[in-house]
Amino acid sequence: MKYILLMFGTKAGVDTYRAWTKKDIDTHMAGLKSLANDLHESGELVAEQGLTGPEEATVVRGQKNGMPVTDGIFPESKEFLLGYWVVDVATPERAHALATRLSTVPGPGGAPTNMPIEVRQLANHPLKWS
Amino acid sequence: MKYILMMNATKAHYDAYAKWSKEDLQRNVAFMRAFSKELKDSGVFVSTEGLAWPNEAKIVRAGKDEEPITDGAFAESKEFLAGYWIIDVESPDQAYEIAARASAAPGPGGIPGSMPIEVRQVLTSFTDLGI
Question: What is the pLDDT of residues B11-64, one digit of tens each?
């Protein structure tokens, strides 16, 4: 069963993160790397990807002539995707356990961030379009 | 430059989509498949995924004993990720052009849906975060 673990944050949350000390950021990254290594070893990691900050986020719509219309204005409350992990696991409980581990990656002072992680199953046919 | 093109949808959007006719759904899925194939043929394709409907979406946090705390309650306005494409292109404008094509995926009656597509550059390294 493939699940995607989604980490979201507001602009305010990203600004707070950028104000962390270098040591806190290094510890945080080490926690994420350790998790990625474990998932590589267990064979459960399908893909992981971080996104750049929300400042450059753009919403695009197609016009009738096919040309893009771009907009970069979002509500303050907008949750931006910060990154995701796609995992192939045996049970939903395993996906929840991995999300919990993501949520316990250290934040400021080494305390767990307790970040909420959204857990979703990937689509199968007929919505699978690739 | 790698970009992610994201389709987001509220539960109301999903409910509306569920009421599309079979023909409309088939036309939409056929477009998505052809679109992915074109991205592959033009050499910009990196990956794509569609997500299952959000009925079973859960928010997971670690409790004090590091046991999972799961919650399935979301605000009505919550934007759920419906699917994404990652593309490797030469410029932001090329990403926007491709996003505009995704936005024109046919909706009911074959009329372009004009879905908003969120376009974000993906990280090649964590220094891109500006920290």
Answer: 999 999 999 999 999 999 999 999 999 999 999 999 999 999 999 899 999 988
Task: Look at A83 and B47 and tell me if their CB atoms are within 8 Å.
Answer: no
Q: Is A52 helix (H, G, I), strand (E, B) or coil?
A: coil
Q: pTM of this prediction?
A: 0.92
Q: Does B91 touch chain A (CB under 8 A)?
A: no
| CATH code: domain of residue B72 | 3.30.70.1060
Pick the CATH number of A2-54+66-121 from 3.10.20.600, 3.40.50.1240, 3.60.20.10, 3.30.70.1060: 3.30.70.1060
pLDDT tens-digit series, residues A21-80? 999 999 999 999 999 999 999 999 999 999 999 998 999 998 878 789 999 999 999 999
Asked if A113 and A35 count as a contact pair (C-beta separation under 8 A), the reply is: no
DSSP reduced 3-state for B91: coil
Min distance A51 CA to chain B CA atoms (Å): 4
Write the ipTM: 0.91
Q: How far apart are CA A81 and CA B108, in angstroms?
A: 29
DSSP class of residue A127 equals T
> Where do the structural domains in chain A lie, given as residue ranges?
2-54+66-121
